[in-house]
Amino acid sequence: MSGTNRADPRPLSPHLQIWRPHATMFASITHRITGMGLYFGTFLIAAWLIALATGPEAYAQAEAVISGVPAQVILFVWTVAVLFHFAGGIRFLLWDGPHAGFKPKTASAVSVFLYVFAVLGSVAIWAAVLWL
Amino acid sequence: MAKSEFVTPAKITRGLGSAKSGTSDHIRQRVTAIALVFLVPWFLYSVINASSIGYAGAAEWAGKPWNAILLILTAGAAFYHMRIGMQIVIEDYIAKTSTRSALLILNSFAVIALFVTVALSVLKLWIGAGA
Fold it and tell me: Which of A114, A99, A96 is nearest to A25 (CA)?
């Protein structure tokens, strides 16, 4: 790096290590990670639909894969990611549109709520699917 | 410090910034998000039901006009949203121009190919159902 006498006087963005960890920071990072996970997860969900359009044999193969333990684990994690990114996305829309929920205490509380909502919501959905 | 010390008048007027596309991606990401607020709950509920009733039931579900329309809308909004999201992540973390360009092109190709395949799959199910 170029030392302390920089010719360019523009301010630098703060580096990661000077931040004190806080809830909104983790929620922001998790939003990005779940977004990336959903990118690849959506290809798998699309594969189910493509198998359905391909015909009964392809769909039977897809059903066999989906009912296996690895696919069920992936689907549960996918559900958690969907709910987190969904609720977090609504939070971003409320920030950008009506500028609601920007107070630090509110923002932190909502960030914690996102994790609780994603996990409990997924458990509720899967319980409903498995037992109803 | 005043903004004018860092930015030329022409740059302020153009309002494009370092990404050269202004706020267009930012706005599109939010418009597709608003669509997905409504489409994703329908999609989750429908797919959970459709995936538990076997091939014939699932094919009949996807072939109904409203379901077919909503499926293609969901795919369109989701893939557009995914493409911008992945693009932003690539732009943020991949500094090397050649790798970055290659990944950005791959991202566009992959998402558009997936959209076309899904849309045609839904169309096939719709036509197959004779609706």
Answer: A114
DSSP-derived secondary structure letter, A18: G
Closest alpha carbon to A49 in A38, A62, A39: A62
Give residue-wise pLDDT tens across range B52-84: 899 999 999 999 999 999 999 999 999 999 999
Domains, chain B, ranges and CATH?
Answer: 25-128 (1.20.1300.10)
Does the domain spanning A22-131 belong to CATH 1.10.10.410?
no
Distance CA B53, CA B47 (A): 10
Q: What is the pTM of this model?
A: 0.85
pLDDT in tens, A52-106: 999 999 999 999 999 999 999 999 999 999 999 999 999 999 998 888 888 889 8
What is the spatial distance between Cα A103 and Cα A84, in angstroms, rounded to a whole number? 21
Domain chopping of chain A, boundaries: 22-131
Provide, as residue numbers in chain A, all residues whose Cβ is less than 8 Å from the Cβ of B37: 86, 89-90, 93
ipTM here = 0.83
Q: Show residues of chain B in contact with A125, CB under 8 Å.
A: 44, 48
